[in-house]
UniProtKB/TrEMBL annotation:
PANTHER family: SLL1072 PROTEIN, SLR1083 PROTEIN. InterPro entries: Nuclease_put_TT1808, Restrct_endonuc-II-like, Uma2. This is Uma2 family endonuclease. It comes from Amycolatopsis pigmentata. Residues 23-174 form the Putative restriction endonuclease domain. Keywords: Endonuclease, Hydrolase, Nuclease. It comes from the Bacteria. GO terms for molecular function: endonuclease activity.
Length: 194
């Protein structure tokens, strides 16, 4: 059995890249459809550890979330104005409450979280991190279910991500940005933790 991986589908005509509008016609088939530089990235449905972490993290963040922010889980579109060639769907997104529309977050979130899957790890760690930085996402968390670890990146004054924390297993991360919350990866995995 082979693992399904994310696939990149470049536009048929490089002069006419995929746009955010093209995503509206994609099927509702359990896959994630994102745009990176006008190329369509299709990822298979995530597995059990990914989903367990995502749902539990959502609950922890939602419980601690101040009124001026809102927390949503994937799939939910994130993009920035005047850029119709990039649209991402973080596993968890935190933005200012008033910035959300009914269907998307058309400005940079204050926090984007990606939970690694075998199919998306390379994109999440490298490509999406770079794009989130370009968008101006202040905090970016990457959770690895296999290693039971989490890396926390924050934008510096020059607009580059700096690794500000790395925790594993039952080691807590005491977040300050975008708001105070305590995260323990092993607790997010629950019975799936080793």
């Amino acid at each position: 059995m082979t693992a399904m991986t994310a696939t990149i589908q470049p536009p048929a005509d490089p002069e006419q890249p995929f746009t955010v509008r093209d995503l509206e016609g994609m099927p509702d088939d359990g896959r994630r459809y994102e745009l990176i530089a006008g190329s369509l990235v299709v990822s298979p449905a995530p597995g059990r550890p990914h989903q367990k972490i995502g749902y539990r993290l959502y609950g922890v963040l939602e419980a601690a979330c101040p009124e001026e922010f809102d927390v949503l889980g994937a799939p939910f579109a994130v993009h920035v104005p005047d850029d119709d060639r990039n649209e991402l769907q973080p596993d968890i997104v935190v933005g200012r409450y008033d910035d959300f529309t009914a269907k998307d977050l058309p400005v940079a979130p204050v926090l984007a979280v990606e939970v690694l899957s075998p199919s998306s790890a390379i994109y999440d760690v490298n490509v999406k991190r770079a794009l989130y930085g370009e968008m101006g996402v202040a905090s970016y968390w990457v959770i690895d279910p296999e290693k039971q670890s989490m890396r926390v990146f924050e934008l510096d004054d020059d607009g580059h991500y700096q690794l500000v924390a790395k925790v594993a297993d039952d080691e807590p991360f005491e977040a300050v940005k975008p708001f105070a919350v305590r995260i323990v990866v092993k607790e997010l995995l629950g019975r799936l933790a080793r």
